[in-house]
Structures are given as structure tokens and as C-alpha cells.
Amino acid sequence: MPIVLCTILVCVGTSHAVRLKDIADIDGVRTNQLVGYGLVVGLNGTGDGTQADFTTQSIVNMMERMGVIIDPKKVKVKNTAGVMVTAQMPPFSKIGQKLDVVVSSLGDAKSLQGGTLLLTPLKGIDGKIYAVAQGPLSIGGFSAQGAGAGVQKNHPTVGRIANGATVEREIPVALNQRSDILISLNNPDFITASRTAIAINSVLRGVDARAVDAETIKLTVPPEFRGDIVDLIAAIENVEIRPDQVAKVVLDERTGTVVVGSDVTISKVAISHGDLSIQIKESPRVSQPQPFSQGATAVTPNTQISVQEGKGRLIVLNTQPNIGDLAKALNAIGVTPRDLIAIFTSLKAAGALHADLEII
Questions:
Q1: Which one of 4, 90, 228, 248 is at 20 to 30 Å from 116 when CA atoms are compared?
Q2: Chain centroid, CA 294 distance in Å
Q3: What are the angstrom distances between the C-alpha of 26 and each of 18, 22, 212, 221?
Q4: DSSP class of residue 289?
Q5: What are the two backbone dihedrals, phi and then psi, of residue 9, each rounded to the nearest 5 degrees?
Q6: Sequence-ordered list of residues with C-beta below 8 angstroms from that of 157, at least 6 positions apart, any chain
Q7: Residue 127 φ/ψ region, left for φ over 0, alpha for ψ in the -120 to 50 degree band, beta for the rest
Q8: pTM of the entire structure?
Q9: Chunked mean pLDDT (size 10), the chain, 360 residues
């Protein structure tokens, strides 16, 4: 999608064909999220404080399972941190496969630098254990602090362990037993769904594909592909589609980013945008009494206000202007990203912007 970022720079053109695998997913083939609670040990005094009761309780429970009985009141947790461990389990993962894990501090630890994650079970939404994680952390930064100052690079309370988890349970996906395949578009659109079904039927002879709704295309598996769904999906994913999209303008007021699609059109309109700057300065005036007098020090406010109004320039867009015409006009007068947001909002209010306006 051609975009407008900060000042508008647009290349307007027709959409190009893309592979189906880049704009859609096969129903049932998905990534699964795993999560677990664990302990990171070996920290250099940067672990949880005494207020993190769950860390203390976790240490006591772990030591008891190892046959060591300790008094919870005497446990110091400054070298230990309670953490949440998360991982993404790809589809078709097999037992013994390695996964990357992200380790995030749960308490008030200052840094996880140099720590080691102890054996942590990772569970799915069903409560079953699908992987276990353990290993030394890499946080990609550091944190150091003295009595009056400190220095920090990156985020020291979140770490990562490459290949830190091992799959212990598989999630079965019975592809070869299916009699039909559902294809889900990432961006639902009726035109794209219809084009997808037509393209599949024209490229793969003997395949019956039809659009169920704006998001889903249902494909009946031909007899020759029964028990060999992988080859059929591989052929489907390479089918080229020319996706359609809704004309949309996205405004991000936090960063001043403006994104405009190539299908956005504008009615004939005149635009004038000027700047108004108001500056207020407060400088208190202090009046001191004469020496040995009975007077008191008096403070009176001194306020200075200045107003500057920029010269607004009126630009007129010709009949049936496109987004490229608007880009050239606005870039010519040097508008700022904040000005762009105000202009597009006003165009939508005036009914001259023929697109969805989304503010994020």
C-alpha cells in the first residue's frame, strides 16, 4: 500500500498481484501461545525485594521438594526473581523441537542480567504442559546504579533464551482427514474473497472453491488429493491474487504519522491552513524596602503576552483530485505532520474526503 509518512510522499498506482499465502491463512494451522511461572537465580543482588512474597514462597516450595526444609522468614530473595515465561509454539511442532522463550520479571527486580532460569513448565490454554524451559538469560543490555545516579541500556527486566524450551507434547492437526479446506483472509473483503475463489478455480483444474463470506473461502478437496492435502495446500498458496482494499486514511496523533491508501479520492476543495502562536511569560518583580525601615518585601507579577499568527495560504484542488495532487499541494506549502492530521480531519468533516478516517 502506498503510504504518506510525516510529509506526504505518494506513488499512486494499481495494486499488484500477491501470493495467496501472504494474505491468507489455512484454518486450523495456527501458532499456540504457552505461558509458565518460574524462578531466575544467580542475580547479583538485583532480584526481588522482601515485598515479593510469591518469590519467597516459590523458593521454600522448591527447596522442600528437594528435601531441604527452611524457615521462610530467613529466606533472602535479592539474588532471585519471580518471572513469567512465554513462548510461541508453531503448528506441527514435534516432541524434542526447540523453542525460543521470553522471560519477564513479575516482581520488583531491578535487573535479570546474568541470571539463569530454572526448569519451568509451559502450559497452553487447556492447562496441559506442552514444553519445558530452562537456561541462561540474554537481556541485551545492562543496568548500573550508584548512590546519586545510574545508567541503563535497553530493558534489563526482560530477557530471552534462544532455543530455551523443549516441546514435550504435540498438538495434532489432522490435515489428511479433511474433506474440505477453509481459507481465511487476513483483511476481510468481498471483492478479494471473490477474486480468490475465481483464481483458485482457474489455476487448479478440478478444484471447487467458493467464497462463503468476506473472509472465508471454502475449497472442496478433489478425490485425487485425498490423503495428500500438503501438495494441494502448497499449490493453493502459490496462486496469485490481486487484493482489493477499503480506501482508508490512518492518523497517529502520538507520533504525527499519516498513512494514506492509493484508493483515497478527494472532491474539488479549497484548503487554507495557518498557524497561531501564543506565548506567555511570567517574570515576578521583587520590591525591597529601604535598610532599617519598617517596610516588607513585595512581589508583584509581571506578565508578558505575545501573539503571532502565520499567513495562511489557500490552495485549490482541481476537479477530481487524487491523493497525489493533494500530496504535491501540501508538500509545496511545507505543512508539518500535525498540520496534516488537522487538514485530513477537516476534509472528512467537510465531506470532501472519500475514505475511512481512522485515528489511532
A1: 90
A2: 67
A3: 16, 11, 14, 13
A4: P
A5: -130, 115
A6: 104, 105, 109, 110, 111, 112
A7: left
A8: 0.70
A9: 40 67 90 95 88 86 88 85 95 94 92 93 95 93 63 81 95 83 92 94 87 93 84 90 87 80 77 59 69 70 62 60 68 72 82 84
